Amino acid sequence: MMKYKIGKREFDFNFAYVMAILNVTPDSFSDSGKYLDKDSAVNQAIKMIEEGADIIDVGGESTRPGSEPVDEDEEIRRVIPVIREVLSQKPDAVISIDTTKANVAKEALANGALIVNDISGGTFEPEILNVVNEFNAAIVLMHIKGKPKTMQDSPEYLDVVKEVYEFLSTQSQVAKQKGIEKIFIDPGIGFGKKLEHNLKLLDRLEELKLIGYPILIGLSRKSLIGNILDLPVDKRDDASNALNAFALSKGARIIRTHNVKQAVETCKLFNRIINN
Fold first, then answer.
1. Which of 35, 135, 184, 258 could form a disulfide with 216 if both were Cys (CB 3.0 to 4.6 A apart)?
2. What kind and span of H or E run contains 271?
């Protein structure tokens, strides 16, 4: 099984890890505006680290369905002070920057972030791959169909698993050719996908293991839970965690979540069972 050295930490993907979501945005589908000012964002990041989060994923642009793009100067203005302050308080923290923009990634990596989480899998701004290589950083390549503003209008697939597999396989090869060695793949649950597409991807998640990179998955509070259980966003944590456990059993190794405490408990149990 793969191991990555990220910052001072070694990640051994026999085990599962937790990536905590920190939205420094006014318009995310969950936590909207809650952590928009620097102090509340930093306090939340510190709390999540102390709850056991392995990675803090800082985002300055909402990518929820229907969201409007943010210009890169504004995105930088939102995230860089937060990254700097978190690292001044927790120098060993592993910080990921959730962006599709090469310049935002560059600023974040220059200020101590170690991972770029790109929902476009390196396709919106291909230069981002050169930036990741320049800093010897890690990258998360996610599958998306379309752009966040319109991705949920009426996505269609002949075979969603095949299409996602081929995209992630191709983009991970492109990243590798750019000299990037630490690659994660993410099927992009809810990003240009209907309910049946999301369920099919979850059911056949283990097929993505054949691409050869650790699988990251974001199920936290997603609309598929609301659709099946008829629950509002703020009541979806228990169901999110049930899906997290299922995803781990199917091969996921990083869980991206809003509720760190629950995900950490799930990963601890999972890690104990499979490495008993």
1. 184
2. helix 260-274
Place of tokens 């090869």: 173
Question: Over the stretch 174-228, which tens digit does the pLDDT of each residue have?
Answer: 999 999 999 999 999 999 999 999 999 999 999 999 999 999 999 999 999 999 9
Structure tokens at 256: 């991206």
Q: What is the pTM of this model?
A: 0.95
HSE-CB for 186 with a 13 A CA cutoff: 27
The one catalytic residue among 101, 106, 250, 256? 256
Report phi then psi at 97, rounded to 5. -105, 120
The active-site residue, picked from 222, 236, 250, 253, is 222
Is 222 labeled as catalytic in the residue annotation? yes
Query: What pLDDT, in 10s, does the model give residues 31-86?
Result: 555 666 889 999 999 999 999 999 999 999 987 777 778 899 999 999 999 999 99
Determine how many CB atoms are found less than 10 A away from the CB of residue 68: 9
DSSP one-letter string for 58-91: EESS--STTPPP--HHHHHHHHHHHHHHHHHH-T
